[in-house]
């Protein structure tokens, strides 16, 4: 290798290392001027000073932003974010554990409870007679069922709940509601929206019906590749990946800036983008977003609203916000003193915001949740899993002031 080649390689290495270092300390008041990639570009690229870890901006589904990298590549899904779940509306619901222990508890959590749910899901009307017959067939002498009252004669329990009393005298008040489709599809035992069991079967361990009870919930540790972490649409992809690649490779300055955020060379853009997978956020998610104008990259700590279409890499890490084409990186941790900027959407709670951990091992396929039906949806990762059609028309960019 001659000296000129060594110098060029070293210069490219220093550019990459410097860009990576800055991204980890954007709140430090520095501005970096660089030329991203090895090819000459028409304008200088700068990383502007970030807002730091003390401020986070709320970014709704349809917010294109003041400085989008590209025209929208997100499909207009016309989804109601409120229906997407899974956000605890109160801090108490987020913290309260679901404790079990009594004999009556174990009876309901066992075969009797499973059969109760199975019959309900099969379409059988859960009348007083049906519940009593099931109890007789499954509980034997271990427990009895009480409080099955049908005063109005319609065949159904008047208040929709009944008591199970175990042989040792412990009792629980049982209710059988509708199954929580999204939570069940994500294999969650508890729906964080209100702390109710995802299969609809709930009971109070405080005693027979009429005894006061309080909300209960649980927590799930999920990483980027855990089945059900992200959503999708069975009818097609939620982002136009090929349009993103075309925008980045068609504009040398934009492509170089985008590549610099991800600490890659411009020659690696195609390979990098081809490995990304379109998904929908099912929870409000904390990320570092980036805007771009006049050769300057503007990083910002943001919370993306659930229902936002993004691209993730094979570890499940958010990499692109599709409505703006903007690159995403890992966020700064949210502190107790963080200042939230922007208009909160319905159901927003800072306690419920997640930072999805990256998987240690890349995946070749994602198990998504169909946001329309709640059913599992298998999606091959990367361009190899690219569907031939999009799930709908691309979002029209609203005029910016």
What does the model show?
The protein is of the alpha+beta class and 401 residues long. It has two domains: 46-85 and 225-385, no CATH class; 97-204, no CATH class. Helix content is 22%, strand content 21%. The chain has a seven-stranded mixed β-sheet, with no helix packed on it. Strands 1, 2, 3, 12, 13 and 17 form a six-stranded mixed β-sheet that branches. A four-stranded antiparallel β-sheet has the order 4-5-6-9. α4 packs antiparallel against α5 (128-139) and α7 (241-250) packs across α8 (252-261). The radius of gyration is 26 Å and the shape is elongated.
Strand order of the largest sheet: 16-15-14-11-10-18-19
Q: What does the radius of gyration come to?
A: 26 Å
User: Which overall shape is indicated by the principal axes computed on the Cα atoms?
Assistant: elongated
- Taken in chain order, the helices and strands follow as HEEEHHHHEEEHEEEEHHHEEEEEEEEE
Report the span from N to C terminus: 53 Å
Give a quick account of the main beta sheet: strands, pairing sense, barrel closure: 7 strands, mixed
Q: Average pLDDT across residues?
A: 76
> Which class best fits the helix and strand makeup?
alpha+beta
Uncertain stretches of 5 or more adjacent residues: 1-42, 86-100, 212-221
Q: How helix-rich are the residues, as a percent range?
A: 10-25%
Oligomeric state, counting identical vs distinct chains = single chain
The tally of beta strands, per DSSP, is 19
Proportion of residues in β-strands: 15-25%
């Amino acid at each position: 290798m001659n000296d000129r080649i060594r110098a060029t390689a070293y210069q490219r290495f220093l550019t990459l290392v410097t860009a990576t270092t800055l991204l980890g300390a954007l709140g430090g008041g520095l501005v970096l001027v660089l030329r991203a990639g090895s090819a000459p570009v028409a304008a200088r690229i700068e990383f502007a000073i970030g807002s730091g870890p003390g401020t986070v901006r709320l970014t709704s589904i349809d917010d294109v932003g003041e400085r989008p990298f590209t025209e929208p590549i997100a499909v207009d899904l016309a989804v109601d974010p409120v229906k997407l779940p899974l956000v605890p509306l109160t801090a108490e619901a987020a913290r309260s554990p679901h404790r079990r222990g009594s004999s009556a508890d174990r009876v309901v959590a066992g075969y009797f409870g499973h059969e109760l749910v199975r019959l309900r899901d099969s379409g059988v009307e859960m009348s007083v007679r049906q519940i009593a017959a099931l109890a007789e067939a499954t509980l034997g002498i271990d427990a009895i069922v009480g409080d099955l009252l049908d005063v109005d004669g319609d065949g159904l329990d008047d208040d929709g709940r009944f008591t199970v009393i175990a042989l040792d005298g412990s009792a629980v008040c049982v209710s059988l509601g509708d199954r929580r489709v999204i939570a069940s599809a994500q294999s969650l035992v508890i729906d964080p929206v209100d702390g109710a069991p995802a299969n609809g079967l709930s009971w109070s361990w405080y005693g027979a019906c009429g005894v006061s009870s309080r909300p209960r919930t649980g927590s799930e540790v999920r990483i980027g590749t855990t089945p059900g972490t992200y959503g999708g649409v069975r009818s097609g992809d939620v982002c136009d990946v090929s349009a993103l690649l075309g925008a980045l490779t068609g504009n040398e300055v934009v492509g170089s800036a985008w590549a610099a955020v991800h600490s890659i060379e411009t020659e690696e853009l195609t390979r990098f983008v081809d490995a990304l997978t379109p998904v929908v956020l099912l929870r409000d998610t904390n990320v570092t977003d980036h805007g771009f104008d006049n050769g300057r990259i503007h990083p910002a700590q943001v919370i993306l609203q659930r229902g936002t279409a993004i691209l993730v890499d094979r570890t499940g890490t958010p990499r692109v916000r599709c409505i703006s084409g903007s690159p995403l990186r890992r966020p700064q941790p949210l502190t107790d003193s963080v200042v939230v900027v922007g208009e909160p959407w319905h159901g927003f709670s800072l306690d419920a915001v997640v930072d999805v951990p990256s998987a240690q091992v890349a995946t070749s396929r994602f198990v998504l949740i169909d946001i329309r039906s709640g059913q599992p949806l298998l999606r091959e990762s990367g361009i190899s899993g690219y569907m031939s059609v999009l799930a709908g028309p691309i979002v029209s960019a609203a005029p910016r002031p």
